[in-house]
Amino acid sequence: MSLPCGIRNYNYAQDMAIFRTKTHWGMLIVFLVLLFTVPPLTFNHLWLNTVNTIGITLIATLGLNILVGYCGQLSIGHAGFIAVGAYTSAILTNRFDMPFLVGLIAAGVVAGCVGIIFGLPSVRVKGFYLAITTIAAQFIIIWVINHWGLTGGFEGISVPYASIGGLVFDSDVKQFYLVMVIVLMAVFVAKNLMRTKVGRAFIAIRDNDLAAEVMGINVNYYKLLAFFIGCFFAGIAGALLAHTTYYLNAEQFSFTDSILYIGMIIIGGLGTTIGPMLGVTLVKIIQKVLLPIYMVPWLENSITSLPAGFATGLAPIVFGLIIVLFLILEPRGLAHRWNLFKAAYRLWPFSY
Amino acid sequence: MDQLLQYVITGLSVGMVYALIALGFVLIWKSSSVANLALGQIVLLSSWFTYSMLVQANLPPIVALPIVIIFALCLGWVIERFALRPLIAQPILSLIAVTLGIGYFIEGVITFIWPWSVDALPTLFPQEVVHIGPAVISQEYLWVIGICLAVFVLLTLFFRFHRMGVAMRATADDQMAVQACGIPVTRVFSMSWMLACVVAAIGGVLISSIGGITHGLVNTGLKAFSVVILGGLDSFVGALVAGPIIGLLETLGGGYLTPYMWGGVRDVIPFIIIIIVMVIKPFGLFGEKRIERI
Predict the structure, then answer these.
(1) Which of A67, A157, A162, A270 has the greatest number of beta carbons closer than 10 A?
(2) Do A323 and B101 touch (CB under 8 A)?
(3) Does B104 sit within 8 Å of A320, measured CB to CB?
């Protein structure tokens, strides 16, 4: 069902191709052209900002998806690793006047190394034990950020605009292009990494780590590699977040955010590349636009006696419900629905 | 010296509360292998509910506290019936994630109903200080230790003699065999959730009667995981032993290390212990070592 009607593969290259037909390529090019022209030209500040946030979050969730969805190592401290990246870049560019690109790469590498450190227990334990370790990592990282002089502590740290050469990314539109280019690179890497030896090793470890070990896969090496890659993506996302918000504070990287990152990949569908895209887009649009701009004023107008904590309490309630309902009703996430939809329109009007 | 004694008493009482909350975790883990990460939020929710009963509804404690217990029972039943029951036999990742979702949901409900986020419970225990040797100790710490021990004894008796307690131990031992014997496993699951919520609620009321109700109670629930990890995931004795150890390390470390470290070191000590235990002895002091067979 993964191919349009009448298309057959005759060699390995065709079988492996992500974009198999000319129509696929055409749709990709049209999508990219639209992506790079429509939002910056037509969206207002709110929507463009939302799209930028979606892009940044997508990079982070792609990393989390590699770690959780492909390699099966549950991490509930992803916001902590994003914080590591954000602060690395902020410190390098603010305190040491390094260029943005150095900060960006360093953010990824440092976050990856911190990820390896906290991923070390994964060599011995898995499942719930690992989840607890990453929760601990989250709290230890935030504590260090709040108390280390270099990070500005509770007062936070201001971050200069991103700049490459003479080009300063100081407006929504410019940041949009910066973020989207990096998002495309991240999607390309994430999608293709899973088609290599490394990705297949990750999947083998997820499905059965004992069997993977027996087959000659170096389980410890690949688990730590998954932590490095996942947290590298988180670090890159953190650096972009730092350079688009201009001001960092440890409160931006709370434990509830970590839960929401897990929620996003569950809503999207674990172990797929389209999943994080759908999940992040849905969650961020609800979080940034639907709830604060439309739902809350509407409810406040239509129901007169609302409790005072209504506006802040609504988002956790909605997302908590969405996570639970998706796990119960559609554990394979939106990605599965997307595949069903594709199969349906390819077969239409005959359902067989 | 008197300072040391004070730290020890505080540490013991905080540790006993951790042990109680940890017990709530172990109960569920043993019977149904579900890792309940919403524990912190359940603690916070039941503390706020107690606040509502005692302050907003202005009930006397003798009426309010049983209502809290009933509320916790209902909470446990609802969570198990509507979120966990449909997910029986799903991979551990879904089970962990669903409790995270529940926790997130509860957090929203709490902000919804009690938006001011910090408050104090009325005093439940006598306030007079007690003199033990040179140390001056607030009486409520001793009460907390006493109540925790009483709950432990009650639970032990329940598991030893009550039909349901025996069924729960049997389920923990071998789910298939229990099912074959005609014991309703789903009812055992639901019972363990209800008990766990009650235990967590008692812990929440005790700790918030001393420290007030803040969002930090969620972190208290998370800190209880260090007790679970140190004691061993499936061991009641482990929770009972590890709770005071964590409590002592936390207060002693917070008391004596703060001058040499950054502030707030007290709050991360449990998390550092988690990492250390994970690297050295991942199955804890009393936990059952899992040997994987192919």
Answers:
(1) A67
(2) yes
(3) yes
B 261-290 near A (Cβ less than 8 A) = 262-265, 267-268, 271-272, 274-275, 278-279, 282
Q: Is B103 part of a structural domain of the chain?
A: yes
Q: Please give the residue range of the domain that contains residue A92.
A: 43-301+309-347
Is some CB atom of chain A closer than 8 A to the CB atom of B102? yes
- When comparing pLDDT for B5 and A101, which is higher? A101
C-alpha atoms less than 13 angstroms from C-alpha of A306 in its C-beta half-sphere: 18
CA distance linking residue B47 with residue B28, whole number of Å: 21
Residue A244 near residue A159, CB atoms below 8 Å: no
In this structure, are residues B186 and B82 in contact, taking their beta carbons and an 8 Å threshold? Answer: no
Asked, for residue A213, whether it belongs to a domain, the answer is yes
First-to-last C-alpha distance (Å) of chain B: 55
Q: Say if B288 falls within a structural domain.
A: no
SS3 A269: coil
Can you read off the two tokens belonging to residue B38?
Answer: 């919403």
> Which own/partner pairs from A282-291 qualify as long-range (CB within 8 Å, at least 24 positions apart)?
A282/A334, A283/A319, A283/A322, A284/A50, A284/A53, A284/A54, A284/A57, A285/A50, A285/A54, A286/A318, A286/A319, A287/A315, A287/A319, A288/A46, A288/A49, A288/A50, A288/A53, A289/A46, A289/A47, A289/A50, A291/A315, A291/A318
Which of B227, B171, B175 lies closest to B199, judged by CA? Answer: B227
User: Is B224 within the bounds of a domain?
Assistant: yes
In a domain, B287, yes or no: no
Lowest average pLDDT, out of A25-34, A313-322, B120-129, goes to B120-129
Host domain of residue B60? 2-280
Predicted local confidence at residue A308, as pLDDT: 66
Using an 8 Å Cβ cutoff, are A247 and A77 in contact? no
Q: Which residues of chain B have pLDDT under 50?
A: none
A184 with A168, same domain: the answer is yes
Compare CB distances from A327 to B35, B101, B225 and report the shortest one's residue: B101
Q: Which residues of B touch A279 (CB under 8 A)?
A: none
A74 and A36 within one domain: no
Q: CB under 8 Å to A177, separation ≥6 — which residues?
A: A36, A40, A169
In a domain, A352, yes or no: no
ipTM score: 0.88
Residue pairs between chains A and B whose CB atoms are closer than 8 Å: 161
Whether residue A1 has pLDDT greater than 60: no
Q: The tokens 């809290």 sit on which residue?
A: B68
Residues A339, A209 share a domain? yes
- A166 shares a domain with A18: no
